[in-house]
UniProtKB/TrEMBL annotation:
Residues 63-94 are annotated as: Disordered. Residues 195-369 form the Peptidase M48 domain. GO terms for cellular component: mitochondrial inner membrane. Keywords: Hydrolase, Membrane, Metal-binding, Metalloprotease, Protease, Transmembrane, Transmembrane helix, Zinc. Its cofactor is Zn(2+). One of its GO terms (biological process) is mitochondrial protein processing. Binds 1 zinc ion per subunit. It comes from Dissophora globulifera. The chain crosses the membrane at residues 274-295. Pfam families: Peptidase_M48. This is Peptidase M48 domain-containing protein.
């Protein structure tokens, strides 16, 4: 072996024993080194290439690591110490950016660190622990869901409900305090003609719905807002802005029948129950798919909550129409009332962004349900009731 090869072999043996650093060796002071070849063992561990230009013009040299197929079991290449990282005093702004710590997710090793793998982490659905956990949650949650199913009156729809009437009543009391604090100063007296008018129409629908056992209260809010709602427990609020659109008792019965239908179907409690399912679904999305918070909220809002709200509103329209007919109000007025409501709406109606269906969609549904509502109206004993209704309709209180 030539003297150059002998010196190179000795040098790399010292490197393997960590006795010298390749970038600080006196070997770099050599003016020129040829391309060196040596024994098969050393050649399998390293490939070193020198040129006069690279040696003379640089402060170090490059040691290329061998391929995996010709790499010895001892893996000498991994034993070569790496050059120290520059200290903060020696680094410039660009170097600090390049060498800054890498982002590390919770429970995940950084690339190249302990526990990392070239193939990536195991998908969560293939992890045995998560499979067991998912099975327990699925069985337990499924049993809880099935045991809390019930049937909605009138429509017969099956739904999940885990809020008791007592819990609903407690929450309704707090909601009633908040509404009174907000609109209390704008509520007309109980002996006002508007309040008496609302009470008269609502009482007939309440009787038809079989909800006379509740402690009903009727409030008319002096406001241009076109709205009405009923809180659980029988607290009715009607805004004066909707009275001209209702126009007569049959039109007001359409409004109140819809709101009382919410009470009969317990939609408020159902929404609270459905919110729990939505939260669970949101957790599953976050664990399995790991979307951003904005994406998760969008999926839950537009994919679950808003469609569910529109479904409840549509069901209240259907139940309310039958209650109106059962209470001997003309259900055909519902189509005219919603036509007047649609004429008051401004701008495009994007139903998928709203909690309520568009007025034109509600009209189509009402027309589909009208034959059954008219059968209910004709089969009801409305002769005596309609005589009294005609007297009220001819009065000034029932017309705007």
């Amino acid at each position: 072996m030539s003297s150059a090869a002998t010196r190179a072999s000795s040098f790399f043996a010292r490197i393997a024993r960590h006795e010298v650093h390749p970038c600080r060796s006196s070997l770099m002071s050599a003016a020129r080194l040829p391309i060196v070849s040596w024994s098969a063992t050393t050649a399998a561990a390293f490939r070193v290439e020198f040129s006069s230009k690279s040696v003379l013009g640089a402060r170090g040299f490059h040691v290329s690591r061998p391929g995996l197929r010709d790499r010895p079991p001892s893996s000498w290449g991994d034993m070569i110490p790496q050059p120290p990282r520059p200290s903060s005093s020696e680094t410039g702004p660009l170097t600090k950016i390049i060498l800054r710590p890498q982002y590390k997710r919770f429970g995940q090793s950084p690339p190249g660190g302990p526990g990392s793998s070239n193939r990536g982490r195991v998908p969560i659905w293939l992890d045995r622990r998560y499979q067991i956990m998912g099975g327990v949650i699925t069985v337990g949650g499924g049993a809880y869901y099935v045991t809390h199913l019930e049937t909605v009156p009138v429509t017969g729809r099956r739904r999940f409900m885990d809020v008791s009437p007592q819990q609903e009543e407690m929450m309704a009391k707090e909601a009633y305090k908040q509404v009174m604090a907000q609109f209390g100063n704008h509520i007309v007296p109980s002996n006002h003609p508007y309040t008496q008018y609302v009470k008269r129409v609502a009482s007939r629908i309440i009787k038809a719905a079989g909800l006379g056992h509740l402690d009903w209260e009727f409030h008319v809010v002096q406001s241009e807002e076109k709205n009405a709602f009923v809180l659980p427990g029988g607290k009715v609020f009607v805004f004066t802005g909707i009275l001209p659109i209702a126009k007569n008792e049959d039109g007001l019965a359409t409004v109140l029948g819809h709101e009382i239908a919410h009470q009969l179907a317990r939609h408020s409690a159902e929404k609270l129950s459905f919110a729990k399912l939505t939260m669970l679904f949101g957790v599953i999305i976050a664990v399995v798919f790991d979307p951003s918070w904005t994406m998760q909220r969008a999926i839950m809002e537009f994919g679950m909550m808003l469609p569910f709200s529109r479904k409840c509103e549509t069901e209240a329209d259907q139940i309310g129409l039958l209650l109106v007919a059962q209470a001997c109000f003309d259900p055909r007025e519902a189509v005219h009332m919603w036509t007047r409501m649609a004429s008051q709406e401004k701008g495009p109606s994007l139903a998928f962004l709203n909690t309520h269906p568009a007025s034109k969609d509600r009209i189509k549904k009402l027309e589909e349900w009208m034959p059954k509502a008219m059968d209910t109206y004709r089969s009801s004993d409305c002769e005596t009731t309609n005589e009294w209704a005609d007297l009220f309709n001819r009065s000034d209180l029932a017309q705007w």
